[in-house]
Amino acid sequence: MDISTDIWGQLAVEASQVYLSDGTMRSPFADTTIEKLPDKVLLHIFSYLSHREICRLARICRRWRQIAYDTRLWKNVSLRPEVSGLHVGSLEMLLSLISVRFGPTLRYIELPIELITHTVLHELSAKCPNLTHMLLDFSTAMQLHDFSEMQAFPTKLRYMCICLSEVIFMEGFMRKIYNFINGLEVLHLVGTYEKCEEEEEEIYEVINVHRLKSATPNLRVINLYGINFIDDSHIDAFSSNCIQLECLAVNFCNKVTGSTLKTLVQRSKRLTCLLMNGTSLKSEFVMQVEWDKCALQELDITATDLTSECLVDMLTRMPNLKFLSAGQINGFNDTVLKQWMELGNTRSLISLDLDSSDNITDEGMLKFLQRFGHQLSACCLSGMPHITDQLWMSILPLLGNCKIIVMGTAEKLGVNIHVDQLMDTIASNCGNLERLELRWDPDNLRFSDKSQKAIDILRVKCLKLRCMVLSDGRYYETVKANFERADRNTVVRTTTCCRVSPYHLLRNYNDLIFN
């Protein structure tokens, strides 16, 4: 948004004029009030606020109300109260908002179940021709609205996220939109993943994936997250029709065993990212895949039961692996690491996540990082009690290019972590650091009166640091207060509400984000 340089120049001149009036010194800002700012400047200021805050400002005066309701402030809108705090009381009010406040500038919208009706979707189709991103939240639905009269739906969608219900069948709705979504490039289907016993409830296939894949031939990114009925046949269905597929994520779909992985890799020549965290992969299926002929660069197999033999076979055959998350796997040990280092191609590796890999020794990890640590942008070695601050002091000088580091374990240790020395070492060696997480229990952290100095050095030397996550406790409060005094209020957070992940380095990270 362009802002007049004349206005800023005028304010700068006023600010520099310190003058006397009746023998008293007058403030240089005495005649400078917010009323003097032009509308375009106020509009720019408002653009940094949430929609809930903008609605509050609309009550100040008529001028602010007019600016607050400018359609340019309403390009990306969430109408889910639990996400944005905005609650639309009636369908009539929403229809009015679509016409008056959203209009052609609307690009992204999130709708809760009570606002997903054929009249609302008709209005969005007619009044918002540039709408490209949509999220439909059916997760709390007990029954759907009647869509039998629906004749229109936004046709320029490139991104669609559908939050599924466990018990509501979606085919009546989906059948009406199939003809409008063939331009989709990014699809999210979000389930209701919970850690519960499988036999507790019957599982329903609430959306027909086989019909959906026929209507979406141009998909580049598919994210099937925590859906309890998704299995290998659904992966096979998408791979048979989506020749543009670059990224497939089936995290926490525990019925996926990998039986169609071979076919997926053969068909999807552009597939570079495969995320299978928390699936039920079987080693015999994974070893059948022609990994040496694939274009895969990013792989997540966290919390799977793959054997050491399978891991060696897979890692040593991948020609260009850049991103690996393989934590919580009992089979990942020193032998796998050594074989991968000697027989595989690790020259392209930029991200390594081995969370809770208890079968890897300090010596094995150090040898690997001595050879490849300099090329890593992310290193996550959390959840391993034997990797303490002493080993990290040896590792950190090897991670000079790291942007993301995760260390520590939440379980209480028999040794103390001297965090001041750790902060000094990080500040001295990791100037490019952007995200840092220390998961150690607060009771294990030892720091002194000189902690403020160590934190100061970290804050000054790691200027790119945008997120630092600590367990809630005395040290967290000390670090948070230090950063807040330097007006960096959003950097320090707790492990209760935030976790650092190497996923930020994924090529399709922005497409994979969903609320």
Summarize the helices and strands and which ones pair or pack:
Elements: H1 5-16, E1 19-21, E2 24-26, H2 39-46, H3 51-57, H4 62-68, E3 76-78, H5 81-84, H6 91-102, E4 108-112, H7 118-127, E5 133-137, E6 159-163, H8 171-177, E7 186-190, H9 209-215, E8 221-225, H10 232-241, E9 247-249, H11 261-267, E10 273-275, H12 283-286, E11 298-300, H13 308-317, E12 323-325, H14 334-343, E13 351-353, H15 362-372, E14 378-382, H16 389-395, E15 404-408, E16 417-418, H17 419-429, E17 435-438, E18 445-446, H18 451-461, E19 467-470, H19 474-485, E20 492-494, H20 509-512
Parallel strand pairs: 3-4, 4-5, 5-6, 6-7, 7-8, 8-9, 9-10, 10-11, 11-12, 12-13, 13-14, 14-15, 15-17, 16-18, 17-19, 19-20
Antiparallel strand pairs: 1-2
Helix pairs in contact: 6-7, 9-10, 10-11, 13-14, 17-18, 18-19
Widest β-sheet, arrangement of strands? 3-4-5-6-7-8-9-10-11-12-13-14-15-17-19-20
Indicate the proportion of strand residues.
5-15%
Question: What percent of the residues sit in helical stretches (DSSP H or I)?
Answer: 25-40%
The radius of gyration over CA amounts to 27 Å
Helix count equals 20
Q: What's the rounded overall pLDDT mean?
A: 89
Low-pLDDT stretches are 195-199
Principal-axes shape call: globular
Largest sheet: 16 strands, parallel
